[in-house]
Every structure is written in C-alpha cells, then in structure tokens.
Amino acid sequence: xxxxGILGTGYYVPERIVTNxxxxxxxxxxxxxxxxxxxxxxxxxxxxxxxxSGMGAKAAEMAIKNAGIAREEIDLIITATITSDxxxxxxxxxxxxxxxxxxxxxxxxxxxxxxxVYALAISRDMIMAGSYKKILVIAAEKLSSIIDxxxxxxxxLLGDGAGAAVVGESLxxxxxxxxxxxxxxxxxxxxxxxxxxxxxxTAESVAAGLHYLKMDGREVYKQAIEKMPLVLEEAMKKxxxxxxxxxxxxxxxxxxxxxxxxxxxxxxPDEKNIINIQRYxxxxxxxxxxxxxxxxxxxxxxxxDMVALSAFGAGLTWGGAVIKI
Length: 325
Ligand code: UT7
Known about the structure:
The protein is of the alpha/beta class. The protein contains 11 helices and 13 strands. The protein has helices spanning 20-24, 31-38, 52-67, 91-99, 115-128, 152-155, 203-207, 217-239, 256-265, 277-280, 287-297; strands at 4-12, 17-19, 42-44, 76-80, 106-109, 134-142, 160-169, 175-182, 190-191, 214-215, 248-251, 306-313, 317-324. It has a 5-stranded mixed sheet with strand order 1-7-6-4-5, with helices on both faces. Strand 4 (76-80), helix 4 (91-99) and strand 5 form a beta-alpha-beta unit. Helix 3 crosses helix 4 (91-99) and helix 8 packs parallel to helix 9. The radius of gyration is 18 Å and the shape is globular. The relative contact order is 0.19. The mean pLDDT is 97. The structure holds oxa(dethia)-CoA. Oxa(dethia)-CoA (UT7) binds at residues 29, 33-34, 37-38, 113, 152-153, 156, 217-218, 220-221, 224, 254-255, 258, 282, 312-313.
C-alpha cells in the first residue's frame, strides 16, 4: 500500500462581503440573533457571473502552487459540490478545462457539507491502491444560488467559496484515517425539493420556491451534535491516536454552538479549534478545506501538526478524518 498525504492546499472566497447589517435589510432578523445563535458576522456572495467552476479553479490553482508540483502531474480531479454551474455535466470537467488538464478523468461527488471528507477518503484509497498518484480534490459552492432570500431560517446562514487540496503519494502517512457515514432516511430535513427528476422545473415549482434549499434546522442540529463526536472518536481510533494527540480540529462550519460544544467535550481549548464561520458563514463542502488552507497560509497549522476533521450535512452524511500535515 502506498502512503498518502496532502501535498498542498488552496482556497478562494468571492470579493463581495455581505454583513449581518445587510441581511437585516433583507429579512426580519438582527445582527444579535445571527451572531449569538450561529457565530456568523458576515459571509461572501459570488458575483452574478461567478460560478462554482471559477471559484473551484482558483482554489485549485493555489493548491497546485502550494504543492510545488507541475499541474500536468495531476492525474484525477474530484469535485465535491451541490451547486455546480449546471445540473450536469460535472463541475470537475468544467474546472479541468479551466486548468487546461483535459484528458485525465474528472468527476463530482454529492455528499453536501460532508463532501470534502468524502472526496478525501476516496482519493486516499485510490492513491493507496496505486491507481493514481496526485489527485486534485476541490470543494466549491455557490449556495447563494439556491438560497431563499425570504426565508430567515436559512438565508442568514449560508455563503459561497471554494477550497482545494492536492492529495498524493507521500513518504510518510499524511492521511491517517478517513471514515464516512450516511443515513438516507432523513433526506427531507435538508434538501432542495425541485430541479431533480422527482420534480423537474415548472412555472409552479419556481413560483412555490421549491428550487431553494429547505432545512429543518432544529433536527439537523440535533443530528449533527450527536454524530460529529462519534465520527471523530471513530477517526481517531482508526488513526491510532487520542484527543490529546490532536493539535488542531476543524469542524464543518455550520454553527459556532455545535463546534464549541463538541470541542469542549473532547477537552480541546479554543486555540486548537480552527473557526472561520464568523467571516464566511456555512459554505457547505467548502468550509473545511477553506479553514485548512487559511490556517496553513497564516502559519497557524504547521508541518507535522495532527489535525482532526469532522463534517456533517445533507443526506444525511457525516464523516471524519485525522491528517498529519
Ligand atoms: O450545513 C449542514 C448542517 N447544518 C447545520 O448543522 C445547521 C444546524 N442547525 C442550526 O445551526 C440551528 O438550528 C439554526 C441556526 C438553523 C437555528 O438556530 P436555533 O437556535 O435552533 O433556532 P430555532 O430554529 O429553534 O428558532 C428559534 C427562533 C424561532 O422563533 P420562534 O418560533 O421561537 O418564535 C425562529 O423563527 O428564532 C427564529 N429565527 C430567527 N430570528 C431572527 C430563525 N431564524 C431567525 C433569524 N433571525 N435569522
């Protein structure tokens, strides 16, 4: 079996900052409610002509540069997204074309907020098996394209952005574990009802707002707070480490209350908890790779650090990983 590691990371967030004060002008909400219930102060919304493939390609360029490799060394592209430019084909082929890497395989995976951890696990196994040597993993979302700006329960939570990692053969073990789960019995607590084959677009479906993201926040909260610690335990056990060995933890950035309470349960102080929800909100699959790439860029996470990842999202899906940078 080959050893696998993260060779480089990158991220991109759109320029436009939308503050809680801006949201107060759109829906019946307050900065105080948003900050205290979620931890979010502002989020980024992509421009009208900026889509998942463009944001993903920018994050990917940075990851390739930071990996110190020639882009031609990439032999597979996997993109995690639920808001690709088109329903099909994949965002991965659009990003591939933007990077000038046509010819190699490229595909998307749909695991919502857990998408990056799913893609990481898939790429790890493919490299371990010797099928590929350097896989470009991208998680990118334009959630502003599926937000109902009249629904205060969801519109204040979400943002746009992209994160990327080059996963490749390495001399030492860099991805010590990656564990995945899903429970398809709770699809409707977080989903987009229309636009798929069950409910193709009609004038009625658009008028009824069925192409927007719908969430039962309380139920998702309950599930997330239960599943994320379990998957962290499982990932650490598989990696052969315990919570005391972890230098940093990166949770899916959906709610500061979820993140802080789980970190506290494991005895991880704030200094170990990488949090950027205040600046970007919930960017679904992109939250973890953006936080990882930013923390490496600003020197907070350094070579040799042990980092635990934990994600939860629509599906329901959840996953965890332990990586050594
Ligand atoms: O990324 C995928 C995973 N997603 C998650 O993990 C999200 C999990 N869920 C959550 O983070 C939280 O449930 C929310 C942030 C979505 C909501 O927080 P909450 O503390 O669970 O609030 P709630 O849904 O229980 O609502 C409490 C009140 C309600 O009013 P009433 O019914 O008690 O009168 C809501 O209508 O807060 C109201 N509310 C708001 N008020 C002001 C809901 N959204 C807003 C808002 N501004 N934006």
